[in-house]
Structures
1.
Amino acid sequence: MRFLVGVTRNALRNPNPAQKATFESAMECTRSLIEFYMYCQYDSHNGNTLNLIEDALCRFHSTKGVFLQYRAGKRLTAEAKDRRTELCAERDDELKANQKKSAAHRQWIRDPWKTIIESEMAKFIEEGSDFNFPKIHLM
């Protein structure tokens, strides 16, 4: 466990600027979970170590949302795929309606749709996912 943060940071080094905030949040979550685990292994505890354990656990819970997109179940994934298909159909209908326009105009229509579809999918999966499993609650 004590090597996990170093290995993870090395494996995911040099994130691009768009990924940097997500990467740092993932590293903070991983770091706080490992701190929690390491503090819990102490042979005895006092008020200070209990405060450190509680602080590490609070930081873990405040940053674990970065992994929420990977908690989607099969049903939610299928629903998200259907929603993406609907959005792509709307985009295609709009592009078809502007078929006689210039390529630059169609690209002008297509670019915002890419952002809309990506953000809609992320929001859909985040709203439907959760961390409701026993091992998290046992901590």
2.
Amino acid sequence: MIQADGALVAIRTTRARGYPAGAALAPDRAYPERPFPGEPISPENHVYGLVRAALRDAGADAEHDGTARWNPLGRWIRRGDRVFVLPNFVMHRRPRESARDFSGKCTHASVVRAVLDYAVVAAGDPSLVTFGNAPIQGCDFDRVAADTGAASVGEAYRRLTGAGVGPVDLRAVSSRVTAYGALKEVRRRDTEGAYDVDLGLGSLLEPLAVSGAGRAEFRVGDYAPEATMRFHGPGRHLYVVSRRVLDADVIISVPKLKTHQKVGLTCALKGTVGAIARKECLAHHRRGAPERGGDEFPRDSAARDLVSRMLDRTAGPDTRLRANVLRVASKVAARALRVGPGGIWGGSWFGNDTAWRMALDIARILRFWRAGALGSTPARHHLVVVDGIVAGEGDGPLRPSGRPAGVVAFAADPCAADVVCARLMAFDPWRIPLVRESFAPGSLPLTGADPSRVSALLDGAPIGLDALPAVAPPPFEEPKGWRGRLIDASAGRRAAASR
């Protein structure tokens, strides 16, 4: 049985507000514990040392600190364990996207490389460690692997060990889409690479599925409604999760610190969707406005309803010309309705009561599912190393503005990690259902930690949570649909006074 870890989050900061250039991702110093002592060091890779320092601050294997025997992840990873490292590779860099904005969207490989090395030290064999992600359907995986440096890390590992650690594309379905939204190609992979996990009545979506006069109309953008509805209904909530992730003994999430239009914040908990092989099972919102039993947008109107139905009709795998003409027209109409401060669409607002439930469902699967069933005790550890060197603010997760924050963080508890990340942004975590409800008790609790006991270290010294907004001021820009809802102004004032 896996015991609950303390809710401590170790944060390290740097004045460097960017990542090492090119493929220079080896350790920045000849650390005595490094797994490949013959590899030339990369002095410019300051990120490696930050990750290492965060692990040291957490007190991991203090007995052997400074020696070749130091094994900071050995407390959670036993020799011979299989480890899956889950970064955030949401989407490749778009043509007009700045390098900084892209860096605020996807996990950089310099963070991943350090995590991989210490996972190998603990597991004892590079062949037991893998990294990868399931980005959105239209992401070009080869491009995002190159853009983030992940491909270079994979190549370095093949050169050093002969092991193919990744990066691995976890998607069962991917597509090629034009800049205007036309669907050019759909590619399908062998679905035997995933497990079907049905949470049934235990799903957090179940109260929505059985409420109201009719059946809830769960939706996820760019997928046919009937495809999503096959996965969700009264008593049935099915998620298709990568075997590579669920066959692991330990999962290490390496999320990007950024905002999210649908759930407020995306970090460790929301990042678990990267383990899903079939994205159509991800219920992101319910069709329509609240008065119709939905949370797609705050207020109903004839125009919104019409465009919503157009999007439903044109979603799906049809690549023919007529389907694409209608698809592009419906997307243009939706974009027009999004213009302006009141243009909320696709569940991208604080009233979305669906997406956070879906994300916590997946986080519970990753914690409790083993050998074909959900157990009553945790099946594996889920560790977190947060990439906040360049963070994302505003309209994340797909189009955030890059925000140089200069932080990395380590936690052995995803829920505690998200509390601290919210505070770093100057957000009130208890106004974010995703974070608040992650501490709810139940038959499949996500944490054994008391939320009042979540604590943080900043560069090795204790720091109160109310002081964290002063680490990377000013407050992060909220997503459009959450403006005025997340920033804890009183905490920001207290943090400023304490500095």
3.
Amino acid sequence: MKRFLNPCRRHHQNLSLLAAGALSEREENQVQDHLRECSPCRLYFQEIKTVTDPLANWAETLPQFQPSESARASWAKVIRAAGRPEPVRRLAPAVAFRDWAHEVFWPWRRVWAGVAAAWLVILAGNVSLRDPAPAITAKSAAPSQEAIASFRDQQKMLAELLPDHSAPRDAERQKFFSPKPRTERFRVFAV
């Protein structure tokens, strides 16, 4: 889609290579033909040429610099030091663990903090939803003989006061389970 909107886009690389003098003769002729026809590409080529001309002639325009003897000596010292192997230092377990933890946790510290927060929420939910009844029954002492006798007396009094609802009475059973005749279910109207 971009080529249709900007058909000269494919020529920009060739224009840069032409300004640097890195094209073959056949390609250079093709690019020169395009430059004769296209004014935006001519403008682009002139902008590229203003940058590449000073860079191409840098050896003529800039004087040759030579580093001083002290600079050469310091470079040689740095190069020799880089070539020497460093002694392997033994790390204490605490330092090794700290370095490992820093490498593992620090890049993803926000992710680890989120995971820790989620686990804290889960832990808080489990603690708050725990049933306290087993803990209370385990801590309470066994009921005394007096309390057991009192409970039995109260149970007997309640049994005398309340009717026995464990078994349905015969009348209720008959009323509940007896089917009605069809004539009683529907009212028939004679016309």
4.
Amino acid sequence: MKAIFIGSVEFSLGLLDVVKNSPLIDIVGLVTKETSTFNSDFADLSKSFKGQECPEVFYFKNNSEEMSSWIQQKAPDVIFCLGWSHLLPEAALKIPPKGAIGYHPAALPSNRGRHPIIWALCLGLKTTASTFFLIKPGVDEGDILSQMNVPILESDYAQDLYNKLKVAAISQLKDLIEELVNNRVQPKSQEHLPSNFWRKRSKEDGRIDWRMSARSIYNLVRALAPPYPGAFFQWDESAVPVNRSQIISAAGLENRIPGEVIECTDVHIDIKTGDDLIRIEFNGIDTTIKKGDFL
């Protein structure tokens, strides 16, 4: 079965390995990017073929019509679009007889849209899902081909959940390829099922407001930890990144104002929030902050 593989992030690499190592698939073309200004986990997938014969590569630069024409010339049986931040043009979707297969790290039909790993952690969800689906012109609306629930622990940071989803997706894709080749896929329609959409996040969504609860701040910090840019707070005129935090009881400090630095040592600071304290490490934090300061 001839395939085109489309992707541009680290998550794509593990799935590309599954496809290129399958004896059932012949990758006839690769669509990726040379650079990215908005994917913090960006990866040029052509680099994964170092020392191996690489399929012809199309480097995408917002040239959808040209990409569709290029894919048409390759005449693929299927398109794997796994780890891609753009909607595929309708012209490209019509090319492969087995369709274009997408991936969304959420429990479709719930939680369609942008930044699903970040939102799941930010909202404190206890579970999410690894979902392969048949791409339609809408956003994450196609028939579900494979879905696996993935638990989220309170101790999971973004990289932890990223890795869990990657392990699940690799396992699913191996089975899905065999089902595709043998025409055993049983799509599950998302039509008429209740859904919601997660919006695109901006940098300001990562700003810590100390009036928030300690739990909400903790969730924000772990959601935006590497491979993402990180939550932050303002000190003087600088945005200070926070990649790790811990909730500390504020018993006896109920009269302290959110944002007050309660304790400051060589390795961490404790800040009053809307309820408890948040402890953050001095990881690149301006050490002019001292006890009694207000952030």
